[in-house]
């Protein structure tokens, strides 16, 4: 039996949140591959698409596991609150992604460690770096604003 969301120890919640975030990272990268290779989007538009897919996945999984004691009613409103609460984290995530795309290749090429054949992997490195950048921020806002216990 799962403990209510706000009675679970914060370190355990954070670990669950982070593990779901790793799953979200894989969803993000897979969705980015779909956006780039099947939908024909550029790396920037593709990233918006992949972020929304990953955010939906992480919202649902956190709703089911990390914050299991929270009401199941109002899913659409809760999903929108999740996107809004994580908007700053999303902007930081996207900004880090853009920096990696813009500077990653040239910097690594300058250092001589980046074979040209691996350039196609740079967007996925950007996704990973962006995801890590918003983890703690998104956890705190999700815990306090999205998945809070009803009073």
Terminal Cα span: 22 Å
The helix-and-strand class reads: mainly alpha
Question: Which runs of at least 5 residues are low in confidence (pLDDT < 50)?
Answer: 1-5
Return Rg in Å: 17 Å
- How many beta-strand elements? 0
The overall number of domains is 1
- Fraction of residues in helix: over 70%
N-to-C series of helices and strands: HHHHHH
The coarse silhouette is: elongated
Task: Determine the strand fraction and express it as a percent band.
Answer: under 5%
Q: What's the main sheet like?
A: none
Q: How much is the average pLDDT?
A: 84
Number of H/I helices:
6
Task: Based on the model shown, name its key terms.
151 residues; elongated
Provide a brief overview of the structure.
The chain is mainly alpha-helical.
Structure description:
The protein has one domain (10-146). 74% of the residues lie in helices and 0% in strands. It has six helices and no strands. Helix 1 runs antiparallel to helix 5 (122-133) and helix 3 crosses helix 4 (87-111).
Could you give the topology of this structure?
Layout: H1 10-37, H2 43-66, H3 75-85, H4 87-111, H5 122-133, H6 135-146
Helix pairs in contact: 1-2, 1-5, 3-4, 3-6, 4-5
């Amino acid at each position: 039996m799962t403990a209510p969301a706000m009675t679970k120890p914060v370190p355990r919640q954070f670990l669950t949140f982070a593990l779901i975030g790793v799953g979200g990272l894989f969803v993000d990268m897979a969705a980015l591959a779909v956006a780039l290779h099947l939908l024909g989007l550029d790396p920037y538009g593709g990233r918006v698409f992949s972020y929304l897919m990953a955010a939906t996945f992480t919202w649902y999984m956190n709703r089911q596991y990390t914050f299991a004691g929270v009401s199941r009613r109002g899913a659409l409103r809760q999903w929108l609150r999740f996107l809004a609460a994580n908007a700053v984290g999303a902007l930081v995530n996207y900004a880090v992604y853009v920096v990696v795309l813009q500077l990653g290749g040239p910097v690594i090429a300058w250092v001589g460690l980046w074979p040209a054949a691996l350039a196609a992997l740079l967007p996925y490195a950007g996704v990973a770096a962006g995801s890590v950048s918003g983890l703690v921020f998104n956890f705190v806002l999700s815990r306090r604003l999205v998945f809070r216990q009803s009073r």
